[in-house]
Design goal:
This protein is mainly α. It is about 60% helix and about 0% strand. It has 25 helices and 2 strands. A two-stranded antiparallel ribbon has the order 1-2. α11 packs across α21.
């Protein structure tokens, strides 16, 4: 048995080392090890043991551990593909995902035809290029006619598609109430499972000096420790950027800076239709938001480069279950901009002063989490699963509210979908939103979002029970500035609701 175990570890180590060799950081890592081998710390007569000591002494072991940590997390992210979720009764969801992707890309192509431009763009004229370069740090002063441009789609468009999903009828469907998502056979957690998953959030651990402990963890530079501390939801503002960078593996190296420079050069050289959509989106959302309008210039920089980043599309496609048939229509280099996409980047403006550091941490967050909120997929933390989780939690643990919504013929998911799809960005105050995103990173879970949606509805239950129109319900929930998410989530997870 031990021999089998050793063989398994050996093969796993070989697989991981091969994966590392394909990563951008491998060249720099290899050069660092070479320098150590040539240093006086390594004895040529005993290279193996002395090199190990040198690696430990120089802190390179932590870097290697972090690389393996991110590599394994990336691998585990895709493991659900080989589980029972590949059963035939979910094929309709995969087909719906393909159709949605085609519909979005076709809409963008139609817009190109209307504007008589190509999807691949055209070389930017020298005058425009010079103006864009001169105003790169103040792009809010860059004049561009956006009157004929509109978002390709908005959250309500995706919601309508989700509500129209029709799967195969099952016998047990007749035994359950006809909820909006009850026919979808995706497994979601019950409150007990959520309580176990978020157990660290409700533990009353007393720390005499939390700031000092955060400093000690950052000195160790160990990504898993940083992730663990984020579970407390008490990250000091001055350390949040460092914690997020370690957990997401987004520290900026020279090859990242080079990549950013190439993206910026592409923006300056090529005029794409998505540029107008990015400008339009920032103006419709962040610019009109009292909390984010001051970041208008940096959001233009970040989102314009984001729209050129082909690596994003490649990485996401490796992760999406239905990616084998999605290339029906040509698309932009990165993702198709939709109404509100810049609000995924806006909160990072409170964390990073450097657009480059902001960009790579935002990009990593988007790739790991946000893209699941805008595609139809069978992932356990995709938007369909989160809607189903919200629905079941509301029906099970707030039956009065559920019954009230049914009586007045208002679908509860319509009330909270914009919260779910945006992960509450633009809805919660920035300081509370960043705590929520701390928890997403700490527990590596988007399930905290529908749970918080339930908690907010419970918190406003008395007022919600007194109104009977969607407009009045939205008025009750419009202002979330008084919401303190930590005590509300802790209360929800400790209250006996089983």
């Amino acid at each position: 048995m031990e021999e089998l175990k050793d063989a398994s570890i050996h093969h796993t180590a070989i697989k991981i080392s091969n994966e590392i060799k394909n990563m951008k950081l491998y060249g720099q890592l290899y050069k660092t090890v070479q320098k150590l081998v040539c240093s006086p710390d390594v004895n040529k007569d005993n290279i193996k043991s002395t090199l190990q000591v040198a690696i430990l002494a120089n802190g390179l072991d932590t870097d290697i551990r972090n690389i393996v940590y991110h590599l394994i997390r990336s691998t585990l992210k895709n493991e659900y593909k080989s589980t029972g979720l590949s059963s035939d009764h979910l094929n309709y969801l995969r087909r719906a995902g393909i159709q949605w992707e085609r519909r979005v890309r076709k809409s963008l192509c139609n817009m190109c035809n209307e504007m008589q431009v190509t999807l691949q763009g055209q070389p930017r004229i020298s005058v425009d290029k010079e103006e864009l370069l001169n105003k790169w740090s103040e792009l809010s002063n860059y004049q561009i006619d956006l009157s004929n441009y509109r978002p390709v789609y908005a959250p309500k468009d995706l919601l309508e598609v989700l509500l129209s999903l029709k799967g195969p009828q099952r016998q047990e469907d007749d035994l359950h109430p006809k909820w909006e998502f009850s026919h979808i056979g995706l497994p979601v957690k019950k409150i007990y499972d959520l309580r176990m998953h978020f157990l660290d959030l409700i533990r009353n651990e007393k720390t005499t000096n939390w700031s000092v402990q955060c400093q000690k963890v950052l000195q160790k530079r160990h990504a898993p420790l940083c992730q663990h501390l984020l579970k407390r939801g008490q990250t000091p503002t001055q350390y949040r950027g460092a914690f997020w960078s370690y957990v997401l593996g987004s520290h900026v190296e020279q090859y990242d800076q080079d990549h950013w420079d190439k993206l910026k050069l592409s923006v300056l050289n090529t005029d794409l239709i998505v540029d107008k959509l990015i400008f339009k989106d920032v103006q419709l959302t962040a610019t009109n938001d009292d909390q984010y309008f001051v970041f208008e210039d940096v959001l233009y920089q970040v989102m314009l480069c984001f729209s050129r980043d082909t690596e994003i599309h490649q990485i996401i496609n490796q992760d999406v279950v239905n990616n084998s048939k999605t290339k029906q229509y040509d698309g932009p280099p990165s993702v198709v901009p939709f109404h509100g996409i810049c609000m995924f980047a806006a909160p990072f403006c409170y964390i990073f002063d450097s657009p480059v550091k902001l960009y790579f941490t935002f990009r990593a967050f988007y790739i790991r989490y946000c893209h699941r909120l805008t595609t139809i997929n069978t992932h356990p933390q995709g938007i369909v699963s989160l809607c189903l989780l919200f629905e079941k939690l509301l029906q099970t643990h707030e039956p009065e509210l559920w019954s009230h919504f049914r009586e007045i013929q208002i679908q509860p998911i319509r009330i909270v979908f914009k919260w779910l799809m945006r992960a509450f960005s633009g809805h919660l105050p920035p300081d509370e939103l960043l705590i929520l995103w701390d928890l997403i990173l700490g527990f590596d879970s988007l399930e905290i979002i529908p749970l918080l949606a339930i908690v907010i509805l419970s918190f406003r239950k008395e007022s919600l029970m007194q109104v009977e129109t969607l407009e009045n319900i939205e008025a009750v929930l419009a202002d979330l500035s008084s919401i303190k998410i930590l005590p509300l989530l802790q209360l929800a997870l400790t209250t006996n609701r089983d």
